[in-house]
Design brief:
482 residues; mainly alpha; 80% helix
Length: 482
């Protein structure tokens, strides 16, 4: 038996699955990169379309809403039509929509084309992650999923640099046209390397669930965005949050009664799964809230250009890459608990350092502080996600990844919203004739919000338990022996 297990491990070497891994990484990089380049392009789009900031912000909001609406359907589509076909179709739709975006003549056209982009991009990550998780041997999943997390870390860092360069030296149209070569590479790799699977034709669609889930998730994301822009007491924000919460409760009640649910919510009966996903949520709020604050601080308090601000995050990219590779190996060897504790401690210490910043804080101090945010990000994001997936039954992975992806959209929006709202309040309370120094302190005070969430995540990480490979995992590994 031991010889069989060793043969199975030899068969699933990294070299064997690397083409599939790179294919999924290329698709994820394409989608995440497009999300990040838009943040820097907003002022230029306001100027080019001769419109206001509120209108252009809908270019980002509409994209997020479309992704949130389609993510819950990813599991059923991959089971019904095969993961490879849906992944390829999603990439094609995303690239075609990118071309349309580059030719948009009005803000309304750009918003519509961004919705199409979101519909295409929403399924790429959950299907790709589920595919890689299934083909990975149980004792190597941390390292393999860690490699898959590199585009999730690099895209938000390279996005501002790439966007700033294209806008400054060419024009805004190229932030969408750049998706064509990246998308073509991802498409060709998917056609050649993604494993084929037989679609389950008798798989029935949970029609009511498919109707309720997009309404619930899109309403919550819209409500969070609206609350950040107009305040929590805004009528549209309150109405959207209430509708989203009510529909979500109805959706949960309905799903728990289905034999073939759209999202497998029964996995929340696992204490390890629930604990891990709540930890992931608090960690994401701290991370995404601080990423936004850092970018705004560099441009508004430090007065840097978008390109210069992008260059400031290079140390973060380096430590993020180191963290995600080292963290994956440590996860396989020691489990999630020590990796999460070290990573979140790095994040919390760095965020505490950032609470001390002012407009005059030295560049070295700022870059080093945020570099350790990157280290914490690299050590935690994919490792916690892998722990959550390992805590769920293996046969339900395709239905679990949409849950984690949908939640990530909402929690990322929530983190951005509460930090933006608090920063706005801090700036509003400044003297009318405030100085750059006052503005810098407002940013420092706002970092306390993200620090608090990181401390909650740190406490939660102390109670993590290692999730060993299940018997089904071991048997699945042995059954693959030639």
């Amino acid at each position: 038996m031991m010889a069989q297990f060793q043969n199975a491990q030899a068969e699933f070497s990294l070299r064997k699955i690397l083409p599939i891994l790179l294919t999924v990484a290329a698709g994820m990089f394409l989608v995440i990169l497009d999300s990040t380049v838009m943040n820097v392009a907003v002022p230029k789009l306001v100027q080019s379309f001769d419109t206001n900031l509120g209108t252009v912000q809908w270019v980002i909001t509409a994209y997020t809403l479309a992704m949130s609406a389609v993510i819950p359907l990813a599991g059923w589509f991959s089971d019904r039509f095969s993961a490879k076909r849906v992944f390829i179709s999603s990439v094609v739709l995303f690239v075609l929509a990118s071309v349309l975006c580059s030719f948009a003549q009005t803000p309304e056209q750009l918003i519509i084309f961004r919705i199409i982009q979101g519909l295409g991009g929403g399924m790429v990550a959950p299907i790709g992650i589920a595919t890689v998780f299934r083909i990975s041997p149980p004792d190597k999943r941390g390292s393999i999923m860690g490699i898959l997390g590199i585009p999730m870390l690099l895209a938000p860092i390279l996005g501002p640099v790439l966007s700033g360069s294209l806008i400054e030296y060419i024009n805004w149209h190229w932030i969408f046209l750049i998706n064509i070569p990246v998308g073509m590479i991802a498409l060709l790799m998917a056609l050649k390397y993604l494993p084929s699977s037989n679609p389950v034709h008798e798989m029935k669609l949970d029609v009511l669930g498919a109707f309720l889930a997009p309404i619930a998730f899109a309403s919550l994301v819209f409500g969070v965005h609206q609350a950040g822009a107009e305040g929590l007491l805004n009528v549209w924000a309150l109405a959207s949050l209430v509708v989203g919460a009510v529909v979500l409760l109805i959706f949960i009640w309905h799903e728990l009664r289905q034999k073939q649910p759209l999202l497998e919510l029964r996995t929340f009966r696992s204490p390890a799964f629930t604990h891990g996903i709540i930890l992931g949520w608090t960690n994401q709020i701290a991370l995404f809230g601080s990423l936004l604050l850092f970018t705004l601080y560099l441009q508004q308090a430090k007065g840097l250009s978008p390109l210069e601000a992008g260059l400031y995050v290079i140390p973060q990219a380096i430590l993020s890459t180191i963290g995600i590779n080292v963290g994956g190996k440590l996860f396989d060897k020691f489990g999630i608990r020590p990796v999460a504790i070290v990573g979140i401690t790095s994040l919390a210490c760095a965020l505490f350092a950032l609470t001390r910043i002012t407009a005059d804080t030295s560049s070295v101090y700022v870059m080093c502080s945020f570099a350790f945010v990157g280290l914490g990000q690299g050590l935690t994001m994919m490792q916690i996600n892998t722990h959550v997936l390992k805590s769920a039954p293996k046969e339900l992975v395709s239905r679990v990844t949409p849950i984690t992806a949908s939640a990530q959209q909402i929690m990322s929006s929530f983190g951005i919203t509460i930090t933006t709202a608090y920063l706005t309040r801090q700036i509003r309370n400044l003297p009318v004739q405030h100085t750059i120094e006052h503005l810098g302190r407002a940013f420092g005070h706002t970092f306390w919000i993200t620090l608090c969430f990181s401390l909650v995540a740190l406490v939660l990480s102390l109670f993590l338990k290692k999730s060993p490979a299940t018997n089904s995992d071991k048997q699945a590994g042995m059954s693959r022996t030639p």
